[in-house]
Amino acid sequence: MSRTSTGRRTFASLPITLPHVNSDYEQTGPVSLPLVAALGWLVPGLGYWVIGKRSHALIAGVSIIVLFLLGLLISGVRCVDVPGYDANGNVIHLKGSSKPIIVDSTFKAILDKPWYIPQILAGPLTIGSSVWSVSVSGTYPKATARMFDIGTLYTAIAGMLNLLVIIDSAHRAAKLNDHFPRSI
Predict the structure, then answer these.
(1) How far from chain centre, in Å, is Cα 49?
(2) Does the chain have fewer CB atoms within 10 Å around its N or its C terminus?
(3) pTM to 2 decimals?
(4) How far does Cα 136 stand from its chain's mean position?
(5) Other C-beta atoms within 10 Å of 168: how many?
(6) Which stretch of DSSP H or E encloses residue 9?
(7) 9, pLDDT greater than 60
(8) How remote is the C-alpha of 59 from its chain's centroid?
(9) What is the H or E stretch that residue 3 is in?
């Protein structure tokens, strides 16, 4: 390690090479922004992959998936509490109505379980976990300990992180699309 004239440390003597910040773009043409966003929701990190940011895609995708799975491992699949179902996996009905609450009053059903909103942002991971959670709800009761809250928090943060990745990949795709000629 050596120091420059300003006193900063440098690693010039070490055999370390750092990649150029924008060197991993491999995009060949304009990309549809809704497509980038939809693919980013379907598979975390896929929006980056489509625009050519392979390293960003792998880092973000693996981080989001691991964070979501850690939430499931910490507190079990029941931490994904599906709107419209009670703790035993039975469909909730409004009083005096034969329709499920999710059909009759979707907004109320979702407001009863607000943590599901960020969880669903993780995409099909949450949908699969929701089906699994409802299917085992009669067998495995929902936990009430602090560990349940931590698992719910992990899965919700994974969903919010995926939303940030979707927004960033769509923004980068828009900036890259500006460099390509527009067809009339």
Answers:
(1) 15
(2) C
(3) 0.75
(4) 24
(5) 16
(6) strand 9-10
(7) no
(8) 13
(9) strand 2-3
Residue 23 has a pLDDT of 45
Identify the DSSP state of 105.
Answer: -
Q: How many residues would you count in the chain?
A: 184
Identity of the residue numbered 46: L
Q: Which SS3 state, helix, strand or coil, does residue 137 take?
A: coil
- Cα separation, 159 vs 135, in Å, equals 22
The Cα–Cα gap between 49 and 27 comes to 9
Q: Cite the DSSP H helix spans in the chain.
A: 33-42, 46-51, 54-75, 101-104, 106-112, 116-120, 124-136, 146-177
Cα 123 from Cα 106, distance rounded (Å): 19
> What is the C-alpha to C-alpha distance for residues 155 and 116, in angstroms, rounded to an integer?
9
The pLDDT value recorded for residue 40 is 94
- Sequence-distant (6+) residues with CB within 8 A of 173 are 31, 33, 36, 47, 50, 51
| Greatest Cα pair distance in the chain | 79
Pairwise pLDDT comparison (34 vs 101), residue with the higher score: 34
Cα–Cα distance for residue pair 100/72, rounded to 1 Å:
27
Buried b vs exposed e over 136-148: b needs ≥16 C-beta within 10 Å? Answer: ebeeeebeeeeeb
Region 41-68: mean pLDDT is 94
Residue 121 corresponds to which tokens in the numbers above?
């942002």
